[in-house]
Amino acid sequence: MKNSVLHPAASRFYADHGWLQSAQTFSFHGNYDPQRIQFGALRVLNDDTVNGGKGFGRHPHDNMEIISIPLEGTLEHQDSLGNVAVIRPGEIQVMSAGTGVYHTEFNKDQDEPVTFLQIWLYPKKLNVTPRYDQMEYTSGNRHNRFQQILSPDPSDEGVWINQDAWFHLAELDKGFETDYALKKEGNGMYVFVIEGNVEVNGQLLSTRDGYGFWPESAVSVKAVEKSSLLVIEVPEKW
To answer: Which family is this sequence assigned to (predicted)?
Structure first.
């Protein structure tokens, strides 16, 4: 497809810090490729596993929309805004860093690892007041459909962020076919396969593959086998 990028799972950067194993779709810290900086407003998509009782010490962020989606295990969050929270599979966390915030993220379980997706988006407006939110969503609501878990509208389904972006999760039965229609004209679509095999507009994707493109109309999605995926819709410019 014209203006598309395919990121096979095996092509991701990998960092092993002992307590942390991180597969990184885009350039991150010491891993750098000028061709893999971002996809539109999507800057970071890390697939992180943190050992029991370990985590990220206190560190700062500013002017970034930071989203965490646990896949296995429990993650404890603390920040300079006074928030202390635990997020689990079936929940999404968002932190609009804005003018600046410090936070820590730790594996709540001392014995079992936690695996989560760490996603950063560039914000629509700079230097907003920092904000934290999290939400639980019902897994049944994404069976053979796209379940919205994030949008730019506080009154819409899911958490909201300071960007014209939408996140959807889907769990599709083998052979199920559906379409995804963009929420905003001109946005791009980045598909990340959490597990399984799917065809997106004819492009075959497997577990942990990523595929970004700029569709002009509705996108066809077919599950080759039982699959779960995350769809990230973002603007090219903001």
So the answer is: Belongs to the pirin family.
- Determine the pLDDT at residue 169: 97
Render pLDDT for 51-99 as a digit per residue (tens, 0 to 9): 999 999 999 999 999 999 999 999 999 999 999 999 999 999 999 999 9
Number of other residues whose CB lies within 10 A of the CB of residue 93: 22
Distances (CA, A) of 88 to 67, 69, 103, 124, 139: 13, 8, 18, 28, 13
Q: Is 168 annotated as a binding residue?
A: no
- How far apart, in whole angstroms, are the C-alpha atoms of residue 238 and residue 198? 30
Tens digit of each residue's pLDDT (9 = 90 or more) over 208-223:
999 999 998 899 999 9
Q: Is 103 annotated among the ligand-binding residues? A: yes
- Identify which of 22, 29, 60 has the alpha carbon closest to the alpha carbon of residue 43: 29
Q: Which fold has domain 9-234?
A: Jelly Rolls (2.60.120)
Distances (CA, A) of 20 to 46, 121, 132, 198, 232: 11, 22, 24, 29, 25
What is the residue whose two structure tokens read 């991150």?
28
Residue type, 191: V
